[in-house]
Automatic annotation (TrEMBL):
<feature type="domain" description="PH">
    <location>
        <begin position="210"/>
        <end position="306"/>
    </location>
</feature>
<dbReference type="GO" id="GO:0005886">
    <property type="term" value="C:plasma membrane"/>
</dbReference>
<keyword id="KW-0238">DNA-binding</keyword>
<comment type="function">
    <text>Phosphatidylinositol 3,4,5-trisphosphate-dependent guanine nucleotide exchange factor (GEF) which, independently of RAS, transduces signals from tyrosine kinase receptors to RAC. It also mediates signaling of membrane ruffling. Regulates the actin cytoskeleton as an effector or adapter protein in response to agonist stimulated phosphatidylinositol (3,4)-bisphosphate production and cell protrusion.</text>
</comment>
<keyword id="KW-0175">Coiled coil</keyword>
<dbReference type="InterPro" id="IPR057837">
    <property type="entry name" value="PH_SWAP70"/>
</dbReference>
<keyword id="KW-0597">Phosphoprotein</keyword>
<dbReference type="Pfam" id="PF00169">
    <property type="entry name" value="PH"/>
</dbReference>
<dbReference type="InterPro" id="IPR011992">
    <property type="entry name" value="EF-hand-dom_pair"/>
</dbReference>
<keyword id="KW-0966">Cell projection</keyword>
<dbReference type="InterPro" id="IPR057836">
    <property type="entry name" value="EF-hand_SWAP70_N"/>
</dbReference>
<dbReference type="InterPro" id="IPR001849">
    <property type="entry name" value="PH_domain"/>
</dbReference>
<dbReference type="GO" id="GO:0003677">
    <property type="term" value="F:DNA binding"/>
</dbReference>
<dbReference type="InterPro" id="IPR011993">
    <property type="entry name" value="PH-like_dom_sf"/>
</dbReference>
<protein>
    <recommendedName>
        <fullName>Switch-associated protein 70</fullName>
    </recommendedName>
</protein>
<comment type="subunit">
    <text>The SWAP complex consists of NPM1, NCL, PARP1 and SWAP70.</text>
</comment>
<dbReference type="GO" id="GO:0030027">
    <property type="term" value="C:lamellipodium"/>
</dbReference>
């Protein structure tokens, strides 16, 4: 709402200025009543005649200034404005009030209608400060747009030359100077009035009416399904289509929002370059004249939908805002640079003053030095004269002194001879004293050494006595231990003797046991051979023998002479048992020994 208010204030400012006939900055109350009534009418704001009469009642205060009119304008008109009025009608009303007074009478290449459109464009591009002007950057932007719309090439060098000749006393052009600049054809040479008018209209549609794109295309009807040529006008949130480009007979609107989309369609039903616009409740089929137009329209509509999703303003308004912000930034930087330059200049001036002060001090010091040098030279002359007088007197005194020195020299020679003798005596005395001191030191050293040796001797003697006592105790202890050890040795020798005897006895017994073992072994071998021969004999006489337990034998299937064989076998078995018992007892004794 703040942007709309700023735009309205620019047009109202032109109207208020036009009513200020004597350029005093004030307008009569009757004229302001008429202006306020007209503003309420075109802006569709409820008219409050009571407030109007109350605010602008007839009294002796005289006309009202711009600042005096602003409170009423803000409170009763601008704060109640809604975005439902005709902007062109509003601008035309303000234009009508100011055109006759300000528009140049010289012939122009553009019509009054074109001048009105330039006036509206000026309000759009001008700075937000009063009196309204358009800065050179915006002039360049507008002229470039007009040149592109006329199909010509932009002459940058020509504009740079124009900027050089620009009046440095002002920051930009007023609206009437801008209309004159465009109307005199300086930047549209070779173009006729119709071409310039079409270019102004195209730029007006884009910047003021927010027309992003327009042109003829075929549209398919929703009821009869027939194809009809329409003039389409794309704006930030709507596509309107008309019977022709004069915009008099409007046939409908396509409302755009962030949910709409555009799709390319293949050729069908004899129609080419088709695309589809999908909205919330309707779908529109459209046919462009060629593929290039089709692609341009699709991209333009998609860009518009994308801006709606982002909530961004139209591209030209966003670009204008960026340019203004850039100018503000550059202005701030320039002001900062100027401030720094002023600070540097002030610092430089301070330095210059300091240098001037130093220079004056140096000049004063030089003058003082010259006076002092003059005084020094005068003093030097006086001192030289005095020195000459003193020198003559000194010569006489020196001659007298030389005579005295000669006399004193002989006396001095005698005195020196006596001093040398005294020095020799002193040196000899020093040597004697040194020898005596050295002898005393040697004597003291020897005395200390003797005392230390005596002390060491006494300590060693005490230590030896202690050692002697310890040795006596150790000898006594050793004698007792020696006696005890001797007793133990005797006992151990006895035990050793007994052990040796036992060992010899055991050795003898071992030898006997070995002999017995050898005898038993031989007997065992003989018994084994005898047993084997007996077993062979028994096997020859018996048919079948089976051993059933270690202590007994069972015979089965016995032939004749059973009793004799049974007795013989029993005797044989008993003899084998005796041999085994004997062998076991003697072998165990051998192993034990």
């Amino acid at each position: 709402m703040g942007g709309l208010k700023d735009e309205l204030l620019k047009a109202i400012w032109h109207a208020f200025t036009a009513l200020d006939l004597d350029h005093s900055g004030k307008v009569s109350k009757s004229q302001l009543k008429v202006l306020s009534h007209n503003l309420c009418t075109v802006l569709k704001v409820p008219h409050d005649p009571v407030a109007l009469e109350e605010h602008f009642r007839d009294d002796d205060e005289g006309p009202v200034s711009n600042q005096g009119y602003m409170p009423y304008l803000n409170k009763f008109i601008l704060e109640k404005v809604q975005d439902n009025f005709d902007k062109i009608e509003f601008n035309r009303m303000c234009w009508t009030l100011c055109v006759k007074k300000n528009l140049t009478k010289s012939p122009l290449l553009i019509t009054e209608e074109d001048a009105f459109k330039v006036w509206v464009i000026f309000n759009f591009l001008s700075e937000d400060k009063y009196p309204l002007i358009i800065v050179p950057e915006e002039i360049e932007y507008l002229l470039k747009k007009l040149t592109e719309a006329m199909g010509g090439g932009w002459q940058q060098e020509q504009f740079e030359h124009y900027k050089i000749n620009f009046d440095d006393s002002k920051d930009g052009l007023s609206v009437w100077e801008l209309i004159e600049l465009i109307g005199n054809g300086q930047f549209s040479k070779g173009m006729d009035q119709q071409t310039v008018s079409m270019a102004i209209n195209e730029v007006f549609n884009e910047l003021i009416l927010d027309v992003l794109k327009q042109g003829y295309m075929m549209k398919k009807g929703h009821r009869r399904k027939n194809w009809t040529e329409r003039w389409f006008v794309l704006k930030p949130s709507i596509i309107s289509y008309y019977v022709s480009e004069d915009l008099k007979d409007k046939k409908g609107d396509i409302l755009l929002d962030e949910n709409c989309c555009v799709e390319s369609l293949p050729d069908k039903d004899g129609k080419k370059c088709l695309f589809l616009i999908k909205c919330f409740d309707k779908t529109f089929e459209i046919s462009a004249s060629d593929k290039k137009k089709k692609q341009e329209w699709i991209q333009a509509i998609q860009s518009t939908i994308h801006l709606l999703k982002l909530g961004s303003p139209p591209p030209h308004k966003e670009a204008r805002q960026r340019r203004k912000e850039l100018r503000k930034k550059l202005l701030a930087e320039q002001e900062e640079l100027e401030r720094q330059m002023k600070e540097l200049q002030a610092a430089n001036e301070n330095k210059q003053q300091e240098l001037e002060t130093v220079r004056k001090k140096l000049e004063e010091a030089a003058s003082r030095a010259a006076e002092e040098e003059k005084k020094r030279l005068q003093t030097q002359v006086e001192l030289q004269a005095r020195f000459s007088t003193e020198l003559e007197r000194e010569k006489l005194i020196r001659q007298q002194m030389e005579e005295q020195v000669a006399q004193k020299s002989s006396e001095l020679e005698q005195y020196l001879q006596r001093v040398r003798e005294l020095e020799d005596m002193y040196l000899k005395l020093q040597e004697a004293l040194e020898d005596e001191r050295q002898a005393r030191q040697d004597e003291e050293t020897v005395r200390k050494l003797q005392a230390r040796l005596l002390e060491e001797e006494s300590s060693k003697r005490a230590e030896l006595e202690k050692w002697h006592l310890e040795q006596q105790q150790a000898i006594q202890t050793t004698e007792a231990e020696k006696q005890e050890l001797e007793n133990q040795r005797v006992l151990k020798e006895r035990a050793l003797q007994e052990a040796m005897e036992q060992l010899q006895q055991l050795e003898l017994e071992r030898k006997q046991a070995l002999e017995q073992y050898e005898g038993v072994k031989k007997k065992l071998e003989m018994a084994t051979s005898k047993t084997k021969s007996w077993k062979d004999k028994v096997a020859q006489h018996e048919g079948l023998i089976r051993l059933i337990e270690p202590a007994g034998l069972i015979f089965m299937d016995v032939p004749q002479r059973r009793n004799e064989v049974e007795k013989l076998l029993f005797c044989l078995w008993k003899m084998i048992m005796l041999i085994e018992e004997y062998t076991t007892s003697h072998v165990g004794c051998v192993f034990i020994s």
